[in-house]
Write a structure and sequence with these properties.
By secondary structure, the chain is of the alpha/beta class. It folds into three domains: 82 residues; 195 residues, no CATH class; 166 residues, Rossmann fold, CATH 3.40.50.1220. It has 18 helices and eight strands. The strands form two sheets. It has a six-stranded parallel beta sheet. A two-stranded antiparallel sheet has the order 1-2. Helix 17 links the parallel strand 6 and strand 7. Helix 5 runs parallel beside helix 7 and helix 6 runs antiparallel to helix 7. The chain starts with 5 loop residues before the first helix and ends with a helix. 45% of the residues are buried. About 3% of the residues have low confidence.
């Protein structure tokens, strides 16, 4: 197959990059997210086809590439079709690990076969190319091992509590310095010593593991976006090695957007990015919240009670959290909202930026249930409305509604912006039990006089409320 000209390939890669930018823009809003996904799929299809045409591959190589694409695409489609919304955070973490490993494998291929990539000969490579592929490999390895740990934590295979030990941060710093020194040595040797390359990879895999284990469950939304950023920078670094314009632009887009999202998540929790990386958030709560804490008195209610209160309200604000996703109650909650609207009740939804275990998790769930977009509001747009609401209906949300963030300087979440549900006339909270949330912190809201606890499976409770309405 004749190879595509470099100029025409550059044009196609630019088109692909523009589609990726449009995809990111589309994904910024639930109303345009489907269109954004389409732009992204078309963009990646153009990039893949262009890459195949640029190489001019044919015969067996083309067949093997087609088979690999079919296998990977088939597995991806099957997973996407079968995965429940509750498992979406760990799915994203798993995909990030694959991106990281892909970067490692491409870097290894470039290192051991530099002539195929036009970056020199084995044992005598360009210093700039060695820097690019070493950085891509190191960041990819950190992304892989870190994403595996994030997956295990999110999937429940590992505890969500931080894992810390003495001199942990010093060890991470020393490993980072060692990686930088080894990259310098590799560049000086012209890539003549493969042992140095493997040492860089080994230390990077270890660093990714050590960076994520001390991060507690409450910081998982930040970890997801942070690892997303890492995977982008790894791809961008290798894009320079491969001379691939699409990979450079796409990697930079993913890297920068992930970094910006990480900043937004940190701001939403009143945390610095450095404090998240250093980890340990929620450790104190896990240590003090377990075991011998006496049971505090709370007010319990039924579906009939909740239906009566909301039916006689003029304004109800629904606050969804991860428990909504676990119970798959998004369709039931929309039915409840529709029933309340028929009674003349004004119903809106309040979304905290870090509700759930992944940025945008609640928005996706509500969109899946066909909740009108104009009824869903972010924290900064709706917080002032709680004081005017007769009822705040909290379903599965815990840490993002905890008043301790405003009132208790000793609380690990003190200073974190929360949804001011405690300002509503009545607070109805749907939970399975009185247990703590993902951060391991007891919620004082549950014990206030205006709060009624509806202890049951979220979906069953909401369905009973709908019947009572």
């Amino acid at each position: 197959m004749p190879a595509l000209s470099a100029n025409f390939a550059a044009v196609l890669y630019t088109v692909s990059a523009v589609l990726f930018i449009l995809a990111l823009r589309g994904l910024s809003s639930p109303e345009t997210s489907r269109r954004g996904n389409v732009f992204g799929m078309v963009g990646i299809a153009i990039a893949i086809i262009t890459t195949i045409l640029v190489t001019g591959m044919g015969g067996q190589a083309l067949i093997l590439t087609a088979v690999a694409l079919a296998i990977g695409g088939g597995i991806g489609a099957l997973i996407a079709k079968k995965i429940p919304m509750t498992d979406m955070p760990q799915l994203i973490a798993g995909f990030h690990s694959l991106v990281g490993m892909a970067a490692v494998l491409v870097a290894a291929a470039a290192f051991f076969s530099p002539e195929s990539f036009g970056i020199g000969q084995a044992g005598s490579m360009k210093a700039g190319s060695l820097l690019e592929l070493s950085l891509g490999a190191a960041i990819g390895a950190i992304t892989f091992s870190g994403s595996v740990i994030a997956f295990l934590k999110l999937n429940g295979n590992m505890g969500g509590a931080p894992i810390t030990f003495k001199f942990q941060h010093l060890l991470n710093l020393l490993i980072g310095i060692a990686i930088a020194v080894l990259i310098g040595m590799l560049m000086k040797a012209g890539g003549a010593d493969p042992v140095i390359f493997w040492a860089i990879l080994g230390l990077a895999f270890l660093l990714g593991f050590l960076l994520i284990i001390p991060i507690g469950g409450a910081d998982m939304p930040v970890v997801i976006s942070m690892l997303n950023s890492y995977s982008g920078w790894a791809a961008a670094a290798l894009g320079f090695t491969l001379g691939n314009l699409a990979l450079i632009i796409t990697g930079a887009l993913v890297g920068s957007s992930g970094a910006i999202l990480s900043y937004i998540m940190c701001h939403a929790m009143n945390r610095s990015f450095i404090s998240v990386i250093l980890g340990g958030f929620g450790a104190e709560a896990v240590e003090t919240g377990a075991g011998d804490k006496p049971q505090r008195p709370h007010k319990a209610g039924s579906a009939v009670d909740a239906a009566f209160i909301m039916k006689n309200a003029s304004k109800v604000i629904i606050v969804p959290g991860y428990g909504l996703a676990v119970a798959q109650a998004q369709h039931a909650i929309r039915e409840m909202a529709d029933a309340l609207k028929e009674e003349g009740v004004d119903v809106t939804y309040a979304i905290h930026p870090v509700a759930g275990r992944m940025p945008g998790h609640m928005n996706v769930l509500l969109a899946e249930a066909n909740v009108p977009y104009d009824e869903v509001f972010e924290l900064e747009d709706i917080n002032s409305e709680f004081s005017n609401a007769d009822v705040a209906f909290v379903i599965g949300a815990n840490d993002v509604t905890n008043p301790a963030a405003k009132t208790d300087p000793q609380s690990p979440i003190f200073g974190m912006p929360i949804l001011d549900v405690d300002k509503a006339g009545t607070v109805l909270v749907v939970k399975r039990s009185m247990s703590t949330g993902y951060a391991g912190i007891d919620n004082d809201l549950f014990y206030e006089d205006k709060t009624m606890m509806l202890l049951a499976d979220a979906k069953k409770m909401v369905e009973e409320i709908v019947k009572a309405l």
